Amino acid sequence: MSSSQDPKLPSPTNPLNRYPSPPMPSAPSESAAFTGFKEYVSQPVVASFIAGGVAGAVSRTVVSPLERLKILFQIQSVGREEYKMSIGKALGKMWREEGFRGFMAGNGTNCIRIVPYSAVQFGSYNFYKRFFEDSPGHPLGAIQRLACGAVAGITSVTFTYPLDIVRTRLSIQSASFAGLSKAEQGKKLPGMWETLVHMYKTEGGFFALYRGIVPTVAGVAPYVGLNFMVYETVRTYFTPEGKDNPGPIGKLGAGAISGAVAQTCTYPFDVLRRRFQINTMSGMGYQYKGIFDAVRVIVSQEGVRGLYKGIAPNLLKVAPSMASSWLSFELTRDFFVALRPEV
Questions:
Q1: What is the pLDDT of residues 165-196, one digit of tens each?
Q2: CB 49 within 8 A of CB 120
Q3: DSSP assigned state of 77
Q4: Mean pLDDT of 276-293
Q5: Whole-number average pLDDT of the chain
Q6: What burial class does residue 158 get, using C-beta atoms within 10 Å of its C-beta: 0-12 exposed, 13-18 middle, 19+ buried?
Q7: Cα–Cα distance between 46 and 123 in angstroms, integer?
């Protein structure tokens, strides 16, 4: 008898091996695929991209009524003052005339815009950081954060601007402005895609979807730069001694401060952006020839305060908006980064 053991017969090492075992499912390959996925989403740039999208959606939904009210205040001028009242009365007017849908008008489009906008902004900031570091892994200084954030802001606004201009149109088309109510009387208000197509066909094609982008970029670049610079600087003061990161309350506080500083410094650019976005809108158009002409006309007709119309509801919203944005960003990013497989 051969000394070699027949694999089909029982053996001392495996007495139950009466028949060959069937092949096992390809679990290792599935495990490898899942491990590869976790490794991919845990990369800093990818994790920041995903977390940025989540942060944008959360922050804008939280403050949607104040965001819309800010826009209604911004686009008013002499002779068009239906919303020239206190914030509380304006919110009450919006609720009486349009209900909860009025509070959320344009928010769906805003979230569709803000998710990729915020994702690209946070993701590109982490991507560009390597180009601003003095050496790999070296923390950025204040000026480097400012410059890196500015480039990230320009990148994000360029990718998503058409959705921003449509959001502005949707935010004001149902409001009770005299010019609009006559022009739109009896008509069903168009949605996001209808508005995009209408602007493309009737207002100048592709360039109509980027009307107002120059003052937008002029405002977004310093705004995003300041936001990142102030947040990353201030969060160190909220970090307990011996810890690497602040707690949730510290992150909320740092986000609120960074948002307030950035918004206040760059707010006139936001007003100009809104005015140019409706420059050809029926019943609401402003005949500005350019940025300097717009500033001259606004200051001469509405005073310097005209460049800061809507800043009150904006400052009321910026604290909860940026606080919730930074907190949800850090929590989501840390969750994905923690998925990195251990070596």
A1: 887 777 666 655 555 555 554 456 677 788 88
A2: yes
A3: B
A4: 69
A5: 79
A6: middle
A7: 7
Q: How many CA atoms lie within 13 Å of 141's alpha carbon, on the beta-carbon side?
A: 3
Domain ranges for the chain: 37-337
Q: Is 28's pLDDT higher than 60?
A: no
* Cα–Cα distances in angstroms (integers) from residue 296 to residues 275, 302, 303, 306, in the given order: 13, 10, 9, 11
Contacts of 271 (CB under 8 A, 6+ apart): 74, 298, 306, 307, 308, 309, 310
Question: At 96, which helix (H) or strand (E)?
Answer: helix 87-103
Rank 4-13, 40-49, 90-99 by mean pLDDT and report only the highest: 40-49
* Rounded-to-integer distance, Cα 146 and Cα 229, Å: 5
The upper half-sphere exposure of residue 84, i.e. CA atoms within 13 Å in the direction of its Cβ, equals 9
Q: Which of 166, 271, 153, 154 is nearest to 208 (CA)?
A: 166
* pLDDT for the residue 119: 94
- Whole-prediction pTM: 0.68
Residues with Cβ within 8 Å of 148's Cβ and at least 6 positions away in sequence, in order, are: 125, 128, 129, 131, 132, 140, 225, 228
Q: Which CATH class for the 37-337 domain? A: mainly alpha
> Tokens in use for 157?
């606004």
